[in-house]
Amino acid sequence: MNGLVTLILVILITVKRYIAVYSDCTVVVNGEKTIKVQGGQTIISALSGSKIFLPSACGGKGTCGFCKIEVLEGREEATSIEEAVIPYKSIIAGTRLGCQTKVRSDISIRVPEEYLSVKEYRGKVTEVEVLTHDIKRFNIDLIEPKTITFKSGQYVVVEPVPGETRAYSIASIRRWENRISLEVKKVPNGLCSTYLHALHAGEELIFFGPYGEFYLRTNQSKVVCVAGGVGLAPMKSIIDEVLTEQKGRKVELYYGARTIDDMYDYERYIRLTKDYEDFKFYPALSDVEEIITHPSGFIFDSGFISSELSKRLVEGEDMEGYLCGPPIMIDTSIAVLRRKGIPSDRIYYDKF
Ligand SMILES: Cc1cc2nc3c(=O)[nH]c(=O)nc-3n(C[C@H](O)[C@H](O)[C@H](O)COP(=O)(O)OP(=O)(O)OC[C@H]3O[C@@H](n4cnc5c(N)ncnc54)[C@H](O)[C@@H]3O)c2cc1C
Ligand code: FES
What we know:
CATH superfamily of the largest domain: Nucleotide-binding domain of ferredoxin-NADP reductase (FNR) module
Bound molecules: flavin-adenine dinucleotide, FE2/S2 (inorganic) cluster
Radius of gyration: 23 Å
CATH class of the largest domain: Alpha Beta
Number of strands: 18
Oligomer: single chain
Number of domains: 3
Order of helices and strands: HEEHEHHEEEEEEEHEEHEHEEEHEHE
Strand order of the largest sheet: 15-16-14-13-12-17-18
């Protein structure tokens, strides 16, 4: 008899689970938008069906942490993947990863308000520029929607194959509303960078955005930009905005790479130092022992960019830090900025 009861219970639980997975569920977003979705999907894919695009830089593997949301009602236990990425206190408060949490019943969630205005864009590559032996710039005219509004420093997300997503900083000036540029370093065997490096002028690209907390704030503090390699990408827009829209504000670019062959656009920044006295440029080459003098007389120091910061920044000056590049460069540079007196909440960065 006991065996029969157990069997019936197992069947009921299985049926309930089956129905919960496959029946329609309701997702209330930010208390204002209610959408019907098919149960069993992850929140990230359920929302994308209603054109709400959560950011993702790891293709839903649960490692980037970009897709965090708050589950207000209908919360389930966090998965071990979520526990590895989200602090315990936030898990208790309801933070989850949109790529790991599934919609199995009616739920209510909160997402950052700006995600509600993120759009899917279709663009046409108009030009591919070879910047170094492994970095290319893609200039893209927007087809639909025809214009994009973003904050200097933000990124877009590309999906080379369904379910795989990667982030790329917007490497063009904010004022050019009808086109964007991406600067992409080819990673050996990298899925998305290989896909992008194979694109030619005339081909189309779909992307989502804009996203990110790494963007220029408006105030009068000196802007200290620190870029490593292709981390130079978002600096163009940040520097342009300071020089053209926040006149009188000082901005310095510290740009590090291994050798001069790994650098690009330095001629442009050398020229800018001549055109704008509020702009200073300090390039440094980590794998070169001697100081290099450019034909213009401009000096490229040898050493790491963190040493350059250490040498040049004046402790206690009113400054903000904007850093983009490899994790080790960001960590060592943040340590210097902190020593020079910049509070951690005025240091913004994207590590990749
Ligand atoms: C906010 C943000 C902005 C970004 N902006 C840019 C940008 O403007 N330009 C740009 O080129 N990239 C940028 N990236 C990195 C980009 O999103 C991808 O991670 C990168 O292009 C590699 O993706 P992939 O699919 O080619 O490689 P994957 O298929 O993801 O990786 C393949 C292999 O390469 C390794 N790998 C991944 N990245 C690197 C690396 N940099 N160096 C060496 N090995 C690596 C991986 O561990 C893996 O073993 C950004 C990332 C973030 C989070
Ligand atoms: S953690 Fe990267 S998409 Fe969710």
